[in-house]
Amino acid sequence: MAKILAVLYPDPVGGYPPDYARDEIPTITGYPGGQTAPTPEAIDFTPGQLLGCVSGELGLRRFLEERGHTFVVTSDKEGAGSTLDRELPDSDVVISQPFWPAYLTPERIAAAPRLKLAITAGIGSDHVDLPSAISHGMTVAEVTYSNSISVSEHAVMQILTLVRNYLPSHEWVTAKKGWNIADSASRAYDLEGMDVGVLGSGRIGQAVLRRLKPFDVTLHYCDVHRLPQEVEEELGLTYHPDARSLASAIDVLSIHTPLHPQTQNLFDDELIGAMKRGSYIVNTARALIVSRDAVVRALNSGRLAGYAGDVWYPQPPPPDHPWRTMPYEAMTPHVSGTTLSAQARYSAGTREILEHWLDGRPIRPEYLIVDGGGLAGAGARSYTVAG
Questions:
Q1: Do 221 and 278 fall within a single domain?
Q2: What GO biological process, any one, is recorded here (predicted)?
Q3: 315 included as an active-site residue
Q4: What is the CATH number of the domain that holds 18?
Q5: Exactly one of 286, 345, 351, 364 is catalytic; which is it?
Q6: Is 382 assigned to a binding site?
Q7: Which domain holds residue 303?
Q8: What pTM did the predictor assign?
């Protein structure tokens, strides 16, 4: 029998929801490109419920315990004596989320001799040290595409929030109890006619481009892999061979590239300084792609008109993180990929992965980041952090 350790984000401060705003959610059976949605043998939850927190347990407890496995769920993942560190040494499987990552460092992996599988409930497995996972013989899997569209919708929302000056306007009628139209309009613009670009045109980046096209903007992109000519023509895309070329040509940038040594701190003072004065950046990929303090300086100087996103480092960030108090921001917690709709899909995908792994059956190749157990079927895909 296996021990499965799930590290999930804490319950709502007001307690687990007794009911929900909607009675149902749409059923998604497939994604662009032909990949099907998760297909576990069964589910023990109601789609549309809160599953990603501790009480939600990804809907896995009944399934695992009926099979005789041990299932431990916690949100306590950092600091000396954390539940994660106490339970990890004899765990066979660790389940984590990008929104509340259990950082599987080389030290933690070395301290867990039985650990054979790390599952990301969602997409983005850079909280797992992949070289250590490979040398340890671990399998690393994530529920590819389960929340890619969720993230793309969030990115478009934050672009509009910044450009239309939504949050300060909203504050005038709520916190300030006012009707200050001139103040609200003083930093509000139309998105129409602007040049908008994405850095990284994978699943999420392409979804953002497709959702922005009806806004009558000029679309740009940069990626190491150029999109097919027919896609460029369909969306009216301008290709840029490098980030600097893209950054200098656009009014709005949405970041969807993986985090790796070449992209870490890519948007520093120099590259942000190459952007048009009054540009906007939305980052729903990874926080370390931008320089934390360079963003603050650019907002204070007016080089950037706004910055938004839902990725921070570390996660959760400390109370004194400067992005909490910098001007012209529209930051959120890391929530873009954990809507109730997305939770139904990534919970089902997590169960599908567990069903296959526990039975010794091949895991879908598109779910595999590192194949440590020969369960890749047609072979594991290349690792990507952005969807």
A1: yes
A2: formate catabolic process
A3: yes
A4: 3.40.50.720
A5: 286
A6: yes
A7: 188-327
A8: 0.94
